Structures are given as structure tokens and as C-alpha cells.
Model the fold of this input.
Amino acid sequence: MTGGPQRLVIRAPNWLGDAVMALPAMASIRRHIDGALIVAARPSLAPLFEEQTDARPDEILVLDMKREVHQLRAARADAIVVLPNSFGSAWVARRAGIGERWGYADSGRSALLTRAVRRPRRKIHQIEYYRNLVRGFGIDVVDGPPRLAVTEQTSRAAEALLRDAKVTGGERLVGFAPGAAYGHAKRWPPDRVARLIAQLAAAHGVVPVLVGAGDDRVTGREIESSLPAGTRLVNLIGRTTLRTLAGVIARCAAFVSNDSGAMHVAAALGTPLTAIFGPTNERVTSPSSHGPVDIILRQVFCRPCMLHECPIDHRCMKRIQVEDVAQSVARHLTIW
Done:
């Protein structure tokens, strides 16, 4: 983009899944600017951009919420793309004195933006939602799914973590992300995860690996307590950083997840993925991948309700049987 910004900031989304789904839009911006590209992200998400993505930022700005205005001002950017839809994110960009402020005209913030793009009137997939924004700036967008590859450093760190858990290099892993930051409604019941783990371990000789954030530890313990005696399980819940999480997922022969950030990481890595959907809308947040993906859901009258907690009987998740998921994983294991 000749004559474009010399220093452009992309303010990344605040959730892991959204950040992954924004990668094609970021890659589109990267391809069309000659100047420096700076990704500004919360501390929990900034490490994502240290891995290999098509966004290829020149700098990564780790945001401190109390100092965000100062940090953005110190970046000396002449343009910022504000991906979060909040009023506050646009207000911070304005207070930082960045001359060009681009984003969706949403949440009453049009006056804070110098280039405001109208939001799509209909629900579209989140990847296309971010692409649509970039298209509104007159930039040709990159086709295809989000792409992520771990660095050699991350791969070694993940292997070290697995070695500490007595996993050898030749063993096939199947990863499970049984949690979801969104709420319990998105979680497939832990006892079914346990039955799936036992079945796959017995039938295919794989090593099951649990991953997740610290908040998922209770779910992990429920799964462990439901396993038949002697079933091998590697529980890494709460023990990975974002980067080692990606490294472990990249090492897996197959991955099973609820609709979560880890699901989108697996999709971007191309790890064979079985995604379990309940209350959320797969038309908006389904995983997009260059690898094999199965989306498993059961249509019931109340989905997608988008609720964090189910007020009735969690039928959208309980109608998904262990065998439904096991068949998908078995197919994926024939690939790797």
C-alpha cells in the first residue's frame, strides 16, 4: 500500500478464539502495507503472535490495561485497526492520539473512528466478519482458514513438558479440551469425556492428554475420577502456557474440544479435530482448518441459545453420545 501508514497497530480481539479467527484479516493487512505492523494484545493472548502466523508482526505490544493509552501513544503509530467492538477500545485509541482509527461502527463509537465500516446486517462467520472489516478499508482479503505453526522453541518446550509426564516421542497422543471459558453450557459432560478416553485408549493404544486453563481443573478431576482403574491419562490442565498449549496440540494425532479457544488453535494448526457444539452457533464460530474437521451437534428446539448456563436439561450436549465422537476420532487416527 504505497503511501499508506508507516506504523500501523492492529488491536487484537480479547478472546483466544476470536484472535485466531482474526488471523486471515490480519494477514490481509500485512500483505497490503509497506510500513511496520504492530499487534497490540492482552498479556494472555500476546504469545499467540510470537508463533508463526501469516500476520507476521514486526512488533508485539503487550497491553497493560492501566497503561494502555500511554503504550499506544509511545508506539508512535499513525493508524490503528480496532478489532474489538467495544466503545472503550476506540476511546483508548482516540486518547492515544493515533491519527487514523479504523473499525466497525458499533457501540456508539462512530465519532471516535476516522474510518468506520458498517457492520453486516446478517450473522456471518466470525472469520468473514473480520475479513469484511478489512475489505471495508479497500484492502483485498486473504482467502482460506487461519494458519498457525509453532516455532522450534515452542515444540521443544512442549516435548519437555510431555517428557516430564512420562510421554515418549513415539507415542500417539489424543488431546482433549474439556472446558470452555464461556460457561458450563458449552461443556460436554465430564463422565462422557472419561468414557471416550477409556474407549480410545483401549481400542487404539493412544495416550489421552487433557489441556485447559486453571479454571478447568475441577472438570479435569471429574474426568480422572470417572476413569476405569488403570487407564492412563496425562493431565496438563493448568500446566501449559498459551505457547506450550499450541505445542502440545501440534503434537497430537487428533484433538477433541468443545467450542473454545483451544478448538480454534487446533484448527489453525491443522491438527485433526472433532469439535462438539451445543448452545453456540456453529455458523458463526465453527472451526476453519486446512486439516480434517468434524463438527458434532444435535439439533434441538432451543439451540443455539447462546446461554452460559442451561436453564433446563442440557439436552443439546447430552444427546451427543460417546460413540458419535469416538467414530470421528477413529477416522482421524487413520490419517496420522
